[in-house]
TrEMBL record:
Residues 1-19 form the signal peptide. This is 3-keto-alpha-glucoside-1,2-lyase/3-keto-2-hydroxy-glucal hydratase domain-containing protein. Residues 21-198 form the 3-keto-alpha-glucoside-1,2-lyase/3-keto-2-hydroxy-glucal hydratase domain. Keywords: Signal. Gene3D superfamilies: Exo-inulinase, domain 1 (2.60.120.560). One of its GO terms (molecular function) is hydrolase activity. It comes from Fodinibius sediminis. It holds the Pfam family 3keto-disac_hyd.
């Protein structure tokens, strides 16, 4: 037993510090810790967070109640129907008008992993067409976003999509928010999310 405990202790100590410091943003049961903006649908099904076009088919957002400045965020998403969505960093909302920067989540060829500034300069950087092939349509995708100071880096399924240094982003503060894009009749948006985890950087 003594040797067994020693081995267990060694294994725990060998886990990288950052892996130990990640904590869940979504509890897999309900929307605790988040606030909805707009009429679009956000709900939990089988431990997954789902966004889906509602009756108005307009933009909608689900934002964290806490604000985050410097962090590493990891998550998995699966696009169903029209998968146009996104992850906002350092964002602020008034109704459904958002200020901040979006790491794009979109169908193939629509710049998933790129960074877009809403109600501002528009596209700041897009991934190369070759890197965009990292997206797996109709399957689960793993995204990682690192935000530190004035730098933002995104990865999709292990491929670095973009790296951006921007003074305006460096000055920003706010929440993390998930977006559902507006839709047209017959072209509704639906995206599944899971394993949302964050490591706050000192």
């Amino acid at each position: 037993m003594k040797y067994f405990l020693m081995i267990c202790s060694f294994l725990l100590l060998s886990i990288p510090a950052k892996a130990q410091e990640f904590k869940p943003l979504f509890n897999g049961e309900d929307l605790s810790g988040w606030t909805e903006h707009g009429t679009e649908r956000w709900y939990v099904e089988d431990g997954e967070l789902i966004c889906e076009s509602g009756p108005d088919k307009e933009y909608g957002y689900l934002r964290t109640n806490e604000t985050y400045k410097d962090f590493i965020l990891t998550l998995d998403f699966k696009q169903e129907s029209n998968g146009n969505s996104g992850v906002f960093i350092r964002s602020n909302l008034e109704g459904t008008k958002i200020s901040g920067w979006q790491v794009e989540v979109a169908p193939m060829g629509s710049h998933t992993g790129g960074i877009y500034e809403s109600y501002g300069r528009g596209w700041l950087i897009q991934p190369s067409p070759e890197d965009e092939k990292a997206l797996k349509p109709d399957d689960w995708n793993h995204m990682k976003i690192r935000v530190e100071g004035d730098e933002v880096t995104s990865w999709l399924n292990g491929t670095q999509m973009v790296h951006l240094e921007d003074e305006k982003i460096g000055e920003g503060t706010g929440s993390i928010a998930l977006q559902i894009h507006s839709a047209t009749p017959g072209n509704e948006v639906k995206v599944r999310w899971k394993n949302l985890r964050i490591h706050v950087l000192d």
